[in-house]
Amino acid sequence: MNNSNKIYDLVVIGAGSGGVRAARISASYGAKVAVIEEDRPGGTCVLRGCIPKKLMVYASEFNKQMSDAKKYGWKIDECSHDWDLLNKSLKEELDRLAGIYDNILKNSGCTIIKGVANFISPTRVKVNDNVIEGKKILIATGGHPWTPDISGVKEHAITSNEALKLPKLPKNISILGSGYIAIEFAFIFRGFGSNVNLIYRSDLPLRGFDNEIRGCLEKELLNKGVKIYPKTKIKKVSKNSKLEIELDDGRILSSDELLVATGRKANTDNLKLENIGVEISHDRSILVNENSRTNIETVFAIGDVTDRINLTPVALGEGHAFADREFGNKKRFFEYDNVPCAVFSQPPISSVGLTEEEAVNQGINCEIYTSNFKPLKNTISGNTERSFIKLIVRKEDNVVIGAHMIGSDAPEIMQSIAIAVKAKLKKSDFDLTVGIHPSAAEEFVTMRSQRD
What CA–CA distance (Å, rounded) separates 66 from 258? Predict the structure, then answer.
């Protein structure tokens, strides 16, 4: 289709979660919208991130669940896993989801244009041989895995993109990093039976989370048989029959695969932002104001490409708020305080609000409540996995300003706790709430004693 003679009210670059939401809502207000996508609609979350990774978490947990079932009287014959079938099932589901996103755009009246967009002016981009013009242009291109400049790493390592579609299960895998992607994949591959090495520079995994949660996570990694290498860097990587990974202390690890999960960078390199002077940060993410507007009046950006909070629900919220403001005549903004998050480790972690360390650094006088317990299910199964929860309470007004959990169903539980934290409820409100017994969630409303 030749779109060179069309002028759109909005051109969206990127059909991930945020871009699709912005396009759909804008179109519902009557805007003429074009969406440019070089791959398939769906973006990182649907095609290369949240969804396939969570499905792999489910797949890897069945091994533990079968082990737990034995003490409950279930006689389980010898089981095996079909890696090819898992890959086939994942592909079919991702194809289905991509089709849904494609239909969402088409049914909302958006024009879908396949290709890579390059800016040639503040209101025009070139895609293939066509020039697409928009009164407003929204960049929603997301991010990509970043690979550090270490000898042999770029030649021999894989990223999360490849880890989600490996042709066979590695017997041995080393993972560089300790953020949520590295942690989730460490448990995934260990759940499938791989020998896993986790290499990271910090003293504890999952930097940025509450330190007590991080300590609990380290114990669970060790309990699951993951070999950890804290305060360690990779010096170089070479390949013989296997990958030889030399650490900075001289030790050498032998692995079938090396997964690098050391962060992500904004997808801005191919946009040719320099052609119109869009300001970017040192890490090449796009700088925007509270309206998601760049320094160029007609150009906006949302989602991971801006590196504000890199979460799918944040991109969705930013995209919706953008459409409401620009085309719906509503003065609505996304709120970045108390955004809950989850790490789908095994057991999972979830958090909302301030960590204890953040509260202390801000000079807030706090009361700390914690509970460390063995889940009821594990009292019979013999599973050594434990749960830990924590509340941060501002002493001057009794308001709960942080909640943290590692344990079974933590994300499902924390979604409701996040409502309470967002509403600025007090610890006394938690205390007056009747717990659901027996459940892990009731611990959040039954803690009465402060931590020593």
Answer: 29
